[in-house]
Amino acid sequence: MTRISCPNDCTYLDSGSDYQQKRLGTQFMPLRRSFYQELDQLGGHKAVALFNLIEVITFGYFEGRRDGQDTEIVAALQALRRTLSPLHVPAAPMPVFAEHLKKEYEVFRKQNPDQIAESAEALEVLDRAARFVSECSENDFQSSRFLGGLIGYVKMMHPEIAAHLKKTHEPGHILLPGQSFLPPPAADVHTHGPDCKHH
Predict the structure, then answer these.
(1) pTM for the full predicted model
(2) What is the pLDDT along the chain (199 residues), one digit of tens a residue?
(3) Domain tally for the chain?
(4) What distance in Å separates the CA atoms of residue 152 and residue 27, rounded to the nearest whole number?
């Protein structure tokens, strides 16, 4: 896609994208682990949960898209930070992913107020997350190394989560570690008979 403008139905494009995502996912794994340790030292499980939420929203939004760039993630993190800041800073209209991230964050925070970092701690997590994404992309304006690494990592290490998010990613249904990413079990089918109490 960088050197040759392949059509979306190109048979080599999917296999090439999968290979690149796996390669980047392998490189991303130790960087991610180190960043999670940094966040844990900063604010414990709530700081970690906030970044995990960002990763889940990012994966759900960009998986399957080939045009995503790391600058979109950085811009969205900065926009979310501005909305959470006690200081009002006038800004241009939000890009599409930034608006999506903000909406998903607000829905999750309302449903789970005690699970993720808030106020000053959230601002610090967002600052560090923006730096982390920039470092992963090697500060290249048109890079998608962070996105490729994140998507590759989730597909390799958590294929059931990747499949669930790809199939049923709906606003307001974000899950965190420790919660089941699988749909609830189907209810037993009831057959009416002589022992049935429905008469």
Answers:
(1) 0.76
(2) 555 666 656 666 555 667 788 899 999 999 999 999 999 999 999 999 999 999 999 999 999 888 899 999 999 999 999 999 888 767 678 899 999 999 999 999 999 989 998 888 999 999 999 999 999 999 887 899 999 999 999 999 999 988 888 875 544 445 554 444 444 444 555 555 666 655 4
(3) 1
(4) 10
| DSSP 8-state assignment for residue 186 | P
Structure tokens at 174: 């974000």
Give the Cα separation of 144 and 37 in Å (integer). Answer: 24
Structural domain including 34 reads 12-168
How far is C-alpha 174 from the chain's CA centre?
9
Amino acid in position 18? D
Signed CA dihedral, 117, 121, 122, 124: sign only: negative
User: In 112-158, where does DSSP find H-type helix?
Assistant: 119-136, 145-157
Contacts 24+ apart (CB under 8 A), 37-42: 38/128, 39/125, 39/128, 42/121, 42/124, 42/125, 42/128
**Where does 3-151 show beta strands of DSSP type E?**
none
Q: Of 68, 67, 89, 69, which Cα lies nearest the Cα of 78?
A: 89
Judge whether 68 lies within some domain. Answer: yes
181 within domain boundaries: no
2 lies in some domain: no
Residue listed under structure tokens 């794994």: 29
